[in-house]
Design a protein that fits this description.
By secondary structure, the protein is mainly beta. The chain folds into three domains: about 150 residues, Glutaredoxin, CATH 3.40.30.10; about 110 residues, Immunoglobulin-like; about 130 residues, Jelly Rolls (Sandwich). The protein is built from three helices and 30 strands. Strand 10 and strand 11 form a beta hairpin. The chain is elongated, with a radius of gyration of 25 Å.
């Protein structure tokens, strides 16, 4: 059966009809727009298409797309639906070829793209070309996610920390732990994306691209000894990065930014961007993926930390966040301190954490330190935290919707059975619906 292909020749557009084999289009030409699904293997629907995630690891999809591509709206819509369904352990990025040169270089130089849209799952373990409708593309992508998710991968753990510094600037730290008995070699790529494009990057249906790739925070090889951890950090400033077409990324915001870290194995495989045997590329499969939206941290040294009543003392302790903390002896609840967040966050749903550090005198610390979270329309929730346990960690308090309509934040007090430390809180925007 014939189908329509759109190919760009300079400023003109030529519409041609070719046979299903596409033999009239050579691998050296510009990528084309493909309207029928072509997959790396024969598509077979699995019993897991209803959405029961049994993955061995988080799956990663890279969508090769362009704003002019008529069929790409189906691929983009399908990935959005799978993400919003929340049934599968995966992340994806939209590589918008005609809007970002970093994206274009990735899909052209590394993947040797044949046509738009193409999705490379797990670095090319599965490749799906074309899209004729959202339902058919969605079914094919779920099949690929299931196939990738069942692949046996090395035992590694990736951890991503993203701290929002304000004005399009982030402190990004990524670490990879090798739990295997042998060394691990690969490449870490950390993709900075917007959750929903604010730069006018839209598919042919007029929908802003979701998780459009802006630029890398890291793109470097790693070698990790058995049982060891690799780690690196950087300050990523949106004003210092651009799309290659004269536009920087100084307009990104904390509640619309997603940073995704993917670890690609160094073992080479032969991949084809036009399965089963055309447009070859060097495939390196993904073993681990994690994503984080920027965290907003308010320390007890920041101006948003308020001592609402007396009795609090300061201490410099190595385990405390930034090396300092406030503390108070147990009392009746009259001595209070608060981290005020309205005015420094955008309205929305946030996960809220408090930093618990290992105090030198754990036996004196409260096992029921109170935290009161004030959120929408004056509502509040009370949570207690055991500060007498060893170790330094962020303790999850819960998720709340903050609308900035009045004074909102987190309060603590001396109403406890031991000393209470007031150190730092962290807010992370919950998994966004796009």
């Amino acid at each position: 059966m014939d189908r329509t292909i759109v190919k760009i020749f300079g400023a003109g557009v030529l519409v041609i009809l070719v046979a299903a084999t596409f033999t009239a289009i050579g691998a050296s030409t510009e990528p084309i727009s493909v309207g029928r699904l072509i997959e790396g293997d024969v598509y077979q629907a699995t019993s897991n298409t209803a959405g029961f995630d049994v993955s061995t690891h988080t799956v990663f999809g890279e969508l090769g797309t362009a704003t002019w591509c008529g069929y790409c709206k189906y691929a983009h819509g399908a990935l959005k639906e799978i993400w919003n369904d929340g049934l599968y352990d995966f992340y994806y990025v939209s590589m918008v070829d005609d809007k970002d040169t970093h994206a274009s270089n990735r899909i052209r130089s590394n993947y040797n793209i044949y046509g738009f849209p193409t999705v490379w799952f797990d670095g090319g373990y599965k490749v799906t070309v074309g899209a004729g409708s959202i339902p058919s593309a969605k079914a094919a992508y779920i099949n690929s996610i299931n196939s990738c998710g069942s692949r046996i991968v090395p035992d590694i753990d990736a951890v991503l920390s993203v701290k929002w510094l304000g004005d399009a600037k982030m402190d990004i730290t990524v670490s990879v732990k090798n739990n295997e008995a042998n060394p691990y070699e690969g490449t870490v790529r950390v993709y900075v994306t917007e959750c929903v494009s604010t730069m006018g990057w839209k598919d042919s249906a007029g929908h802003p691209y979701t998780f459009p790739f802006l630029d890398y925070a890291f793109n470097e090889p790693i070698v990790i000894d058995a049982g060891s951890t690799w780690q690196d950090s950087t300050i990523w400033d949106g004003y210092q990065h651009n799309d290659g077409h004269g536009h920087n990324f100084g307009g990104i915001t904390a509640n619309n930014t997603m940073v995704i870290a993917a670890v690609f194995n160094a073992e080479w495989h032969q991949g084809y961007s036009y399965p089963p045997g055309k447009n070859p590329f060097d495939a390196y499969y993904v073993d681990e993926v994690t994503g984080e939206m920027p965290a907003i941290v308010v320390d007890d040294s920041d101006s948003e930390f308020l001592l609402l009543s007396g009795g609090w003392h300061t201490a410099s302790l190595p385990n405390a966040w930034n090396g300092n903390t406030h503390y108070i002896a147990k009392g009746s609840g009259n001595n209070r301190a608060a981290w005020r967040i309205d005015g420094i966050i955008d309205p929305g749903m946030y996960d809220v954490y408090t930093y618990k550090f290992e105090h030198p005198y754990l036996n004196l610390m409260a096992t029921n330190a109170p935290y009161v979270v004030y959120y929408n329309t004056g509502q509040s929730s009370v949570i207690t935290v055991d500060q007498s346990t060893p170790g330094n960690e962020w303790i999850y308090l819960g998720a709340w919707d903050f609308d900035n309509s009045h004074a909102q934040g987190v309060l603590t007090a001396d109403y406890a059975n031991g000393f209470v430390a007031a150190d730092a809180i962290k807010l992370v925007h919950v998994r966004p619906t796009v």
